[in-house]
Design brief:
Elements (H helix, E strand, L loop, with lengths): L6 E4 L5 H12 L3 E6 L2 H10 L4 E4 L5 H14 L5 E4 L15 H26 L6 E5 L12 H20 L6 E5 L18 H13 L4 E2 L3 H7 L2 H12 L3
Parallel strand pairs: 1-2, 1-4, 2-3, 4-5, 5-6, 6-7
Amino acid sequence: MQLSGNTILITGGSSGIGLALTERFLAAGNQVIITGRREGALEEVRRRFPAVVTQVSDSGSAADRARLVDELTQRFPDLNVVINNAGIQRKVDLLRSEPWDDARQEIAVNLEGPIHMASLLLPHLLKQARPVLINVSSGLAFVPLTAAPVYSATKAALHSFTLSLRHQLRKTPVAVVEIIPPAVRSNLGGAHDFGVPTDEYADSVIQQLGEGRLEVTYQFSAKLSQASRAEADEMFKQLNGAD
């Protein structure tokens, strides 16, 4: 991927990995548009980075996704890079009943969103120079964290979809990239202080994108994504504990 001179859309770009990538892409000389559900969080990003373009949009809403694509393709006809980064991670006790809307929203943001955005944007991307479509999955796509079962399942499905999308687009100019994070210090699933520092991780992502990697991994997620079945079973025990 060429790292400068792009017009880039990053969903969920107001915090965590999305914000760290926003900062780096801006510094590299790109036009960057970010979305999020909270106007206040987007306004804070604008104060820090006046060049960023922000748009309030809910990645879990089909209507919002359609409006977003319609507006951005008109305002930014050179849009050529899309990063489906928005995500929700919840801890779920499957032995306890919960409102279905909670799980539905997690599925809508993590899985429906990237699939729908790809469908909506492909006609536009196919007309662009150097088009790139990037889905952010997780190391948990390969070995689930049982405390976050819906999240892990959506990321496994997104990994599968990304493989199919890349294969179907192999004879087109659209590069399909999957970013596969390990645990990163961010506010995903609630703020936590474990995992890879966000800046360290984002620097690695940018480097690997510049190298043309189609699967961007780092540390533990690299091991998860390449594990044999026996290795994956052992990692499952490490992540979730053995009885």
